Amino acid sequence: MNNAEALLAAARKAADQAHCPYSNFHVGAAVRCTDGTVVSGCNVENASYGLTICAERVALFNCVAQGLQPLELAVSCVDAQNNAPLASRMPCGACRQVMQELMPNSAIIHIDGVDSRRLKELLPDAFSLDSAKNAP
Predict the structure, then answer these.
(1) Annotated catalytic, 121?
(2) Catalytic-labelled residue, pool 5, 45, 56, 121
(3) Which pTM does this prediction carry?
(4) Where in the sequence is the domain holding 73, given as residue range(s)?
């Protein structure tokens, strides 16, 4: 099993822990950090939908809480049907923005059932306060 497959397997396993009584859509994410540690997360839904958090952000925030630097991420929507549109498997915009903040642009994102992409491909021209400070 190569690194990408192992990370996707960890994401699938994390999806088993999802709290998703409203969507019944189990999502898991796993992050490989610069020191080799793998940190996982799952989606956690709430009756007040705005309080719901995606698996990708749970995993990334867990890395930060542990003082780790995220390097590579895998995400798996285990309930997505085989013929589901690829867009239903992709990380949402909020997750992409958090990835941009916490991971290098060259980070590889493995999307189960889709492919692997560099972060800069998922969020071109990402928002950054650093660029806003340097605007004319």
Answers:
(1) no
(2) 56
(3) 0.92
(4) 3-133
